[in-house]
Amino acid sequence: MRELGSSGRSSAPSSVVMGNRSHAVLGLLLAATVVLAILFAGGGWSESRAAAPRGSADPSQMDHRAFLPLVTSTRPLQRERYGYVALSSDWREDFDVAQLGGGWYVDANPPYCADSPGGLERALLIRVRNWSSIQLPWLGGLVDNYPGGLWLVGNEPDCIWQDNVVPEAYAHIYHEIYTFIKGRDPTAQVSPGGIVQPTPLRIAWLDRVLLEYKNEYHVQMPVDVWNIHNAILRELSHLCDPANAWGADIPPGFTQCEGEMREVEDNDSMDIFTQQIWTFRQWMADNGYAGYPLIVTEYGVLTPVEWGFDVDRVNAFMDATFDFFQTAKSTTLGDPADGYRLVQRWAWFSLDNPPYDPEIEHSFNGNLFDPYSTEITGYGLNFGTHTDAFPPLDYVELRPTGLRVEPLEPIGASGVV
Q1: Dihedral of the alpha carbons of 215, 218, 223, 226, in degrees to the nearest 10
Q2: Phi and psi at residue 343, in whole multiples of 5°?
Q3: pTM (predicted TM-score)
Q4: How does pLDDT run across 14-66, given as a tens digit for each residue?
Q5: Could you give the CA distance from residue 285 to residue 253 in angstroms, rounded to a whole number?
Q6: Bridge-partner residues for 346, per DSSP?
Q7: 311-327 vs 270-286: helix axis angle to the nearest 10?
Q8: How far apart are CA 144 and CA 124, in angstroms?
Q9: Of residues 201, 197, 196, 208, the one with CA closest to residue 159
Q10: Distance in angstroms (rounded) separating the CA atoms of residues 289 and 70
Q11: Which of 40, 118, 350, 380 lies at 20 to 30 Å from 103 by C-alpha?
Q12: Helix/strand/coil for 372
């Protein structure tokens, strides 16, 4: 997105205890068989992410449905749904993020090696503006340091102010990065870069990406998780009307002067916000990705206090979006592994972006921490009210390491020996 006001922006073997009378435990054995079948055929209680099948020479030729996380993973814990976008390099040291009670974050500037505070899960962002294959050794080191990671290939590649890639070029960049990561770490998950907002113009940008990928590699584009940003911004070319072209501009590779002509007051419109999620879920279904996980990796209120978006107004929008994410479901469009919810996780923008400065007309609203004082803000306190009732994160491995089936009573207690 464009800066506001800027002119340019990780076993015991199973055992069965039984009496001498086989009919006394037949039911138990049958139950055990069913449980084992569920666990080892479908992943059962595992919280692990889905992985591509091992041993493939070319990950791009895999049937992406073979590693779709519909049967190998379970729904996130409630706390794990709530996240934020972390921007600064020292945020781990500067901010007491435990106050937020979130369960994951988007690492916009992933360090070469860093622990995740409090065991939070993360999505790692790979910037693809001016991407070159010479960056693969650097990426390989990151992949080695974060096994099983979720990788977001690009930040708003549909936006000229961000990664700025024409759709046909993006298809080839995504292919190169996807195949490289999957070849290096088959347990990794890869997601296409989040578009600014699912408007008709941005959907058309994605359509061209999918078409180019299919034409060039003769398979549907492989995706583990879809992610989007859900901004509410104006789409007006700065080349056509520089005085009024605040927002997302026109996607690279398109020549229109305008798309969705939003107004400033629309920035916290729940009608637009929710419709965009429904629109993207329908687009996923129309293109063969129905039921895939969807995460929103960036959204918030960007317009500043000075433009009428004070703490109460922004927090009301935060409340409404959290409620929507928790409750919006569709048996035809949602993720069946997650109770058919439309969205599995979401990340508020931002943890630590500097607040808007009216003197230079730069930056955005909604920061959960003040980057200067390092204190939690009113937005951060409100975020915490949504998570404080959840139990703490507990990363005990939930996959059973063995199965022990015992009689319902001590042997001999009921006269059966």
Answers
A1: 30
A2: -125, 135
A3: 0.80
A4: 222 223 333 333 343 333 333 333 333 333 222 333 333 323 334 444 443 33
A5: 25
A6: 82, 296
A7: 30
A8: 13
A9: 196
A10: 12
A11: 40
A12: coil
